[in-house]
Amino acid sequence: MNWDWQVFCEDTIERQVVQGCFGKNGDITYLDWLMSAWGWTVSVSLCALVIALVVGSIIGTLRTLPDRPWTVRLGNAWVELFRNVPLLVQIFLWYHVVPAIFPALKQVPGFLLVVLALGFFTSARIAEQLRAGIQALPRGQRYAGMALGFTTFQYYRYVLLPMAYRIIIPPLTSEAMNIFKNSSVAFAVSVAELTLFAMQAQEETSRGIEVYLAVTGLYMISAFVINRIMAFIEKKSRIPGFIAAGGSGGH
């Protein structure tokens, strides 16, 4: 098997090797294209992650509010809707169906629609994790906040949520890594991310092995960086002995 990594130094029009592998004077090489696709993948993933964290935190909190049955039902409905519909189906709904219902969205870039679809899909999973984290806390923490005269908002803000987030950092790490992998479905609506690059570059160059190995490597690097960032956050926010105590005290 002969591998030709020089394919990434070729320009995308004439297929001539470019010195330095990066295009000049308007030329675009496959390496330029690959880096641009990686940028789109990172952009989609990080924007969707921000939406997922914000919305997931709100929904997860709503599902644990005491004496608020309708907010709990609303949160449950959100989770059931977005968690049980395949992501690819949701992206097509956001891209084709939602703009037809709301014509103003026809002017919204496909990038933003993909970010919303991926963010809401992941928010349902984060909401479930946060609900579990809050319910795993010892009941005494909630009662202590109430005894101090805190409102519901205050004891969630200052007592429950800071501790719950510490508990769910490991599953949040998995979701942050998954969102990079799930961003690959954006190719279905022509967002120029890594998977779309791989499909098109392989067709043009007939060098599928090199192309897919490079794309796979970039996905692995992205996931590894997120993993290390989350591991650093977990290390800095860890409370020694808390998780074991919390797990037994929540019953």
Automatic annotation (TrEMBL):
UniProt subcellular location: Cell inner membrane; Cell membrane
Domain ABC transmembrane type-1: 38-230
Protein's membrane topology: Multi-pass membrane protein
Superkingdom as given in the UniProt entry: Bacteria
Keyword Cytoplasm: no
The keyword 4Fe-4S belongs to this UniProt entry's keyword annotation: no
Chain ranges passing through the membrane: 37-60, 81-102, 108-127, 147-168, 180-199, 211-233
Entry-linked InterPro entries: AA_ABC_transptr_permease_3TM (IPR010065), ArtM/GltK/GlnP/TcyL/YhdX-like (IPR043429), MetI-like (IPR000515), MetI-like_sf (IPR035906)
Swiss-Prot/TrEMBL keywords: Cell membrane, Membrane, Transmembrane, Transmembrane helix, Transport
Family membership: Belongs to the binding-protein-dependent transport system permease family. HisMQ subfamily.
Descriptive protein name: Glutamate/aspartate transport system permease protein
Native source organism of the sequence: Comamonas odontotermitis
